[in-house]
Predict the 3D structure of the following.
Amino acid sequence: MNILVFVKRVPDTESRIRIQHETKSIVEDGLNFVVSPYDEYAVEEALKLREAKGGTVRVVSVGKDEAVAVLRKCLAMGADEAFLVKDDSPETYDGLRTARIIARAVERKFAGTDLLLFGKQSVGADNSQVPAMVAELLGLPQATVVTKLEVEGTSATALREIEGGMEKVALALPAVVTAQKGLNEPRYETLKGIMAAKKKDIPVVKLEELGLGPDELASQVEVTGLDVPAQRQAGRILTGDPAETARELVRLLRTEAKVI
Amino acid sequence: MIAVFMEKRDGKIKKSSLEALSEAKRRAGEMGVETAAILVGDAVADLAPAAFGRGAAKVYLIENNYLADYSSQAYALALAEFVREAKPAAIFFAGTAMGRDLAPRVAARLGAGLASDCVKIAVKAGALEFTRPIYAGKAFLSLTLRSTPKVATLRPNVFPLGEAVPGAGEVIKMDVTVPDGTVKGRVTEVIKEESAEVDVTEADMVISGGRGLKGPENFALLRDLAAVFPRAAVGASRSAVDSGWIGHSHQVGQTGKTVSPNLYIAVGISGAIQHLAGMSSSKVIVAVNKDAEAPIFKVADYGILGDLFEVVPRLKDELKKALAE
């Protein structure tokens, strides 16, 4: 089966986020960029499916030249090919714009794909928009936030997380699936994989090649503000006898914080 | 008009949908427009009074056998038809598993912009401004959408429920045809967690455990504590989840869930930055830790410095006593 995995380059989860107020953007200097964690589960699932059923795993990222680094990591994990869809625009936080780029790239460049895998959301924009939008634009079914995926012939069954349980979703392929933590345990790159990945060519797809009009590439989102939350103040620390501190805490929660 | 999609689970409208409806009502009031609720399914007319009771002026009913089980494709088609007919200025969804699955499809079908996981909505110069966390709450983004309609998902447990008032209004039935072959995926089964626990994102109180618990068996202490409250859930730090002590659906933080309960109790959690991002919007934070230097104490309103194995059982007894009064 032919699998496409979409990955995004994001600051790692240990990052402290700083704001550039004039441009209403994130300060990127000093941040350590990685493959968005949920995307790693998607890559791993693709590799497992290829091992079980044969086929190819191709990885695609939409972004600036710097995204090549995360594509190389995916190659080192074992993906067959990687492609950069070059988009130099700064973060728009508009999922529809990215979804239109991806949907058109799939139609023009990656016809014959059986499964489109994504992370359930990018760590950062946290939108959870793009995969379901791509599915809609391409008329494909979807299962989002998936912790178990089984593929049999031209259909698939996915378990997706919902509040207090799971939903079983039956899908006809091709389909869009988004990975949640728990789907699998992503493998580490091997030294051999890293060496091989260095030699691989990463073709660049230019935005102009996709024939999207200015309307389709315009962002629907206008950013009106960006800020870090007010620092919480450290409160009162109780020490001493466990029974007494417990009693005092409950008294404070009741009379001062009024939450119980 | 601001229209709100009403999510049905277990034969009822979800509380988070009613929260979204309450917020729609408040903002629509400022904009001088009306509020409508949309019910989708095979037989959902009996839920209309609940929507009127939270301030909907109109209830749109889209009933069809094809819509009995949730399918993002069929539901998106139905809602896009609704938008074409009713022409709302905005359409809100609860930011639940279903809302987050469905809203992007509806937005894409309409070519509309979507604001995900909003925690604040304001009306500025007649336009809706949405505020939402990014980087799991390390920063907050405010935005407006250029499209009509504007689509938004609202984080559960953030927007207050409006007062319930007995009300009635206009019920409008809409026919939507789902052509054969359009639906290529659908939910075939809903599997409930046996414990029927409240999800951390929907709980009023969240009691989370970290590495300080020393092993999976000690989460029982937290479950006992949670059982004292009517709507409490057990959460966990990433290290507890990665150690296999508890399922990842309990994880709070940047690669888990972001929560904003009334009370968050962090037990044996040091407070890594990615964990703090996921719980800092809780109204009141309590930390129990034996390490005075733990970063969690820097964000906690109240802390107990001590051995959690001694503190937590006593805390449970004291809470029980206080709640019984």
Notes: Helices of chain A lie at 37-53, 68-77, 95-109, 130-138, 191-199, 214-217, 242-255. The first strand of chain A starts at residue 2 and ends at 6. The two ends of chain A are 55 Å apart (CA to CA).
